[in-house]
Specification:
Number of helices: 3
Shape: elongated
Pfam family, one: YtpI
Organism: Brevibacillus composti
Helix content: over 70%
InterPro entries: YtpI (IPR025618)
Number of strands: 0
Structural class: mainly alpha
Protein name: YtpI family protein
Keywords: Membrane, Transmembrane, Transmembrane helix
Distance between the termini: 50 Å
Largest sheet: none
Order of helices and strands: HHH
Length: 103
Amino acid sequence: MWFATYMTGVVASLVASVYYSVTARQRGTHPLASRMILGKMNISLGVLVSLFGLNQFSFDDLDTIRIVVGLLLLFVGVMNLVLGTRNYLRYRSAWMAEMKKSS
């Protein structure tokens, strides 16, 4: 069960990361909208790296190196998730304010 959930999460977050990365870099996109999309990309990359870190703890033989690598990946993934969410919310509110101002 863990493997199916893990692979689904990895594939979904990888596809979302690539999609958001390509979408954010298109020509003609408003800078605030582009940064908002990059925030979504950081969120999906945070989920991906966190899943890699959690996978390290699913093995039977846990040694010190595997625990350190897993904790490091979890830390980087969670920080990317938190900072991506912060950036997305910040640029979304700025985007909404600009849309209200322009209309």
